[in-house]
Please model this.
Amino acid sequence: MANSRSGDSMTDRIVRVLDTFTTERTMQTATEIAARTGLPASSAHRIVGDLVAAGLLERDEDNRIRLGMRLWELALRGSSALRLRQAALPHMERVQTLIREHTQLAVLEHEEALFLERLSHPDAGANITRVAGRLPVHASSSGLVLLAHADPPIRERVLAGPLRAVARETVTGAATLRAMLTTIRRRGYVVAPGSIEAVSTGVAVPVRDHGEVVAALSVVLPRDSATAAAIDALLDAARAIEKDLNRSR
Amino acid sequence: MANSRSGDSMTDRIVRVLDTFTTERTMQTATEIAARTGLPASSAHRIVGDLVAAGLLERDEDNRIRLGMRLWELALRGSSALRLRQAALPHMERVQTLIREHTQLAVLEHEEALFLERLSHPDAGANITRVAGRLPVHASSSGLVLLAHADPPIRERVLAGPLRAVARETVTGAATLRAMLTTIRRRGYVVAPGSIEAVSTGVAVPVRDHGEVVAALSVVLPRDSATAAAIDALLDAARAIEKDLNRSR
Model:
């Protein structure tokens, strides 16, 4: 009943509809959505109609569709992402006040770093669209920390490649990467110059919840900045977040 | 094909499953979920299975179910809630630094105030669970601002009642409330002492996006605090958010 002839569940088809919305594409017509899902048009239109009726999508007066506040509420209200970012936020603010650069919180999600939060200095210009964005684990400083502490089977799958060169200096050799991960676990932080963009250096540390690494906290510095102050601020913040997480469950 | 015999769509049933998760209930067994949805057990279990397979729910090693990071990502990535709270966050931080009390951002959602963001002073104690929470529009200061600027049909539906007394001082008379809303539109802010809790006073101002009121920005002060500084800080922040929103689209 819930499955189409092709064997994907209704849930899968709803995900395909929601997945057509991105940070750059927040408004679409039902026809555009249908085309992007690759589903039969009648099926896609019916799902869009159901999602609008349930409030998960919203239709404006020009008949354009956007994600609904009800979806936001359902996704966040009971979410561990919310618990984590709420515990982290005050301490991220302190890092940002000290370091005055982008301050970020990421988790491991399907072998990528998924960004739960990003603070930018009020004068640092528009930075509206990157929360809920992803970066490869082997290239971003947050990802490297998450990968260093991931379950071994996940780590091995990533190391087995392919390891894409995001920038000229991205480490793409499995042996070098494996040695880096060992160093990250030993040192408790990573400094990754130029691995995402030539002009910047990522600095990241692990955040633990009851002993287990659940997130990475990071700052993005101009390429040749001193990193000691950032490392200290991140380690202090990570310890404070861990204390608050321990209290909260 | 997508509908059950009772006429609710698969989307409705998925919403019923997701809706069993709350700020206080972030982990459940599949059996608990099934009981809370009121759906036939076999149907609820199949939906949970589909949602786990799609990553919208996650199952831990003890077979307990929680909301998945993938759901969080799909709900936020293209969301207008994200655009709004990202534009607001730096300015909310400034309000919080000045006023040192809870600072909140809310939108109107189904005749209630839905809170998109809440900042608390690092030393203000645990406040992890209230983002994505709701308050009645006629009682909370944020809600009063949103109601004052809502489309007239929505305002009339709320005024037609019932208007529940959340606290002893909640305004529950339609005529008094109507006069308050007129005053709020004229003054550009509201001060609502004791309308949610006897010990506190809410202060809220509207936030406009391209001229239209889309949110309320508020602080919660101890009951007999002076309010002038908070009103000024909120009005300044609202203007700054409006400028950033105008730039961002």
User: Anything to note?
Assistant: Confidence is low (pLDDT under 50) at residues 1-5, 125-129 of chain A. The radius of gyration of chain A is 20 Å.
